Amino acid sequence: MLHLTHYCLLLLLLAPTQDAPHNSTPITTDWSAAKQLAPGILLLQDSLQSPRPIRRHAVRINLQQPGLKFTTTDRIAEWQPDTRETRRQTVRSFLRSERAAARPVLLAFNADAFTPWPAHFDQETPANLQGFAVCRGQLVSPPSGSPSLIITSDGKASIRSAASGENPSGIDIAVSGFALCLKNGQVQPSGTDLHPRTAIGLSADQRVLFVLIVDGRRHSSGGATTAELGQWLLDYGAHDGINMDGGGSSTLAWWNNDATTEDKIELLNRPVGNGLKLLTPDADRLGVSERANGNNVGVWLQAP
């Protein structure tokens, strides 16, 4: 016989939750320990020891935050699609130039792969991007079939492959990556190769954007597979995710208003832009180098 107390408890468990989150993806990561970089922008950094030493840098961006804006690398002078599209910049140089252009970027990270490569890692040379790219409604690189993060001028975000000849007007930014590592809440299979990684994820309700940078080629952080990227994005709360350009390109930087130095731009991860493997403690401790990337993404807050 069911006791009345047990019956009431059962009704409570079965009743629909009135304040259920919009995102239907299970979130297994505790974001309460995250640092707020700016309103609506949280940073969570941690280290794993299994299955290898791994250093992760995750950002959670509330796309409903008032005044939230995105920017990306604009096309180069004498632009030629699929030939000469952008000028390479390190993430910190990009952040600096955007702030000089009255876009006060607070956070920046690398995006799509580019050619020609190999090239001198830190020189600002012309580049051809490998996927769809748009900057403030202007086409930077035509669609190639690869998945893209697309944010429209009214702030709506999606992860999808752009159609051939897609009209860029009405798109604030678009950047692309290699392939989906998380699709409809399902981690996509991958090989076993380990590299530094950059990934972008989007919640099921398309209200939260996730950026994940994983250090690699280091004694302290051995990198990740793309399947691991997908699993971690899922843990953070993403429903879909893209494996972006990685390796020596993977870089995350921010503008630290509290910094006492004149240049307040700081690296949040430890990139290996020169392509070296730093597999001893001394090399790991001393070796940080930034790569000039084909395009980058910046996040900022417009004053009310």
Describe the protein's architecture and organization:
The structure is a single chain. With 304 residues, this protein is mostly beta strands. The chain has one domain. The protein is built from 4 helices and 21 strands. The strands form 4 sheets. Strands 1-2-3-17-16-18-14-15 form an 8-stranded antiparallel sheet, covered by helices on one side. The protein has a 5-stranded antiparallel sheet with strand order 4-21-6-19-20, covered by helices on one side. It has a 5-stranded antiparallel sheet with strand order 10-9-13-11-12, with no helix packed on it. The protein is globular and about 45 Å long.
The outline comes out as globular
Order of SSEs, N→C? HEEEEEHEEEEEEEEEEEEHEEEHE
Structural class: mainly beta
Strand content: 25-35%
Strand order of the largest sheet: 1-2-3-17-16-18-14-15
Low-confidence stretches: 1-21
- Name the quaternary structure: single chain
Our measurement of the CA-to-CA distance between the termini, rounded to an integer number of angstroms, reads 61 Å
Number of domains: 1
Radius of gyration, in Å, reads: 20 Å
Mean pLDDT: 93
Number of helices: 4
Q: Give the total of beta strands.
A: 21
**Major sheet: size, sense and barrel closure?**
8 strands, antiparallel
User: What proportion of the residues is helical, as a percent range?
Assistant: 10-25%
In short:
It contains four helices and 21 strands. The protein has helices at residues 4-14, 91-100, 226-236, 281-286, and strands spanning 35-38, 41-48, 54-62, 68-72, 86-87, 107-110, 114-115, 126-129, 133-135, 138-141, 147-152, 157-161, 171-176, 179-183, 186-187, 197-202, 208-214, 240-243, 252-255, 265-267, 296-301. The longest helix is centred in the N-terminal third of the chain and has 11 residues, at 4-14.
